[in-house]
Amino acid sequence: MGFYKKKEKNLNAFEKLIGEFGDVWIWTGFDPRNKVVVGYVAGKRRQSEANKLLKMIKDRTDDNIPLFTSDDLKQYKTAILKSYGIKDERNGKEQMKKPKKSKIKPHPDLKYAKVVKTKVKGRVVDVTTEVVFGKLREVMQAIEKSPVSKHINTSFVERNNLTMRERNRRLTRKTMGFSKRKRFLVASLNIFLAIYHFVKPHKGLRIRVDQEDRKWIQRTPMMAAKITDHIWTVKELVIYRIG
Known about the structure:
The structure is a single chain. The chain is α+β, with helices and mostly antiparallel strands and 243 residues long. The protein folds into 2 domains: 2-198, no CATH class; 201-243, no CATH class. 35% of the residues lie in helices and 24% in strands. The protein contains 9 helices and 10 strands. α2 (47-60) packs parallel to α3. The longest helix is centred in the last third of the chain and has 17 residues, at 182-198. The protein starts with a strand and ends with a helix.
């Protein structure tokens, strides 16, 4: 999605050894109902980054396990199971045997489906869906109750990725504004997301209050999520005291 200093293919042996430069992947957890970016991780396409994102999502949400959807990147399955799985209790006979490493199985309420895209010469020729955790019937029942979608998809997070590209110069394609260090990219993302969540009203979140006069109440993602009750100004955001 972006890069530090140089693209991966242009790194020399020493820069690859450092491990800080090259392509960077912005892992995001997105709530399509409130348009909230629950968490993000800037790093490589590795299992450790996926695990960190899912742990962040679990820490920032309540005890209700959300319905997860994603593309077919293999790291998601392991990360979701790591954060939302439960230990597989062994029966009495198994306990008498030599102790083995505990296995993790999906929580009964865990539902996860993925979108699988088949590509030929870089072009998508087919799109299918697959239920990874839970039953298809349960997944479809959960989606049926959704106020924003009626089928398995990744369109919401993909649209959010486009918003991030449009509003953050460091993520623009073919740009001279790319980050030289990770901390600069993370700082720019934090600023962007603060403005996105608290300052910028989202058209998809507005509420109609008068059908005839077409009056609306404008809302930001954090208003929709009931974190705040008003649209913030940039000044209010900058001077807000944490803690």
